[in-house]
Design goal:
Length: about 70
Amino acid sequence: MPFYRKPQAKWDRRHLITISTHLTREQHRRLKRCCARQHVTVYRLVREFLLAFIAEWDGAEDQAQE
């Protein structure tokens, strides 16, 4: 039985957003090489960096309000 993707796609449209950037071909080649060495995908790396940045920023913001 094939995976039924339509309900998932509908949820994705309502709850997710894509963030992207441009890199030179050389930057992209270097990034992919680094990710391969760490056994992580480019997408996972970017997501983890962004979530860590948000968590750090939120923590700094909370401390500033105290």
